[in-house]
Amino acid sequence: MSQQSRTLVESAWRAFASHDAERIAAVFAEDAEWLAPAGNATAVALGAPSHMVGREAIVRFLAEDFRRLFARDVTVTFRGFHADGERVVVEETMTATLADGGQYANDYCFVFELRDGLIHRVREYMDTARAHRMIFGAAPR
């Protein structure tokens, strides 16, 4: 199961990068959740929730909203995929050019929980203060 889980998550990243709503929707359970730290810079900048509930909300974020902030040159460098049963941990660095022309680079850790061959839950971790500095020029207090 671990290799299948890893393969599914790797395929999901290719779908995310495509920004194709149908491809993205195909990897998520209908009741999927995506949890990121409250008040993270991406959510604040886009006026989006840090806890997305439901396939439709997640797909809209990845297919449409994401590109409003991370406008071009988005590159993901994977540092590791660690699979155990239906749980996959992904370590990565993402770089991009922001909509205002600024540069973005941050490290992330994602924990994917799978159910019935689909992504059921994603927990996202990143350096929130660093992201705030790159997007807004200062970290929140």
Automatic annotation (TrEMBL):
Superkingdom, taxonomy of origin: Bacteria
Name the record gives this protein: Nuclear transport factor 2 family protein
Domain SnoaL-like: 10-121
Species in which this protein is naturally found: Streptomyces boetiae
Source organism phylogeny: Bacteria, Bacillati, Actinomycetota, Actinomycetes, Kitasatosporales
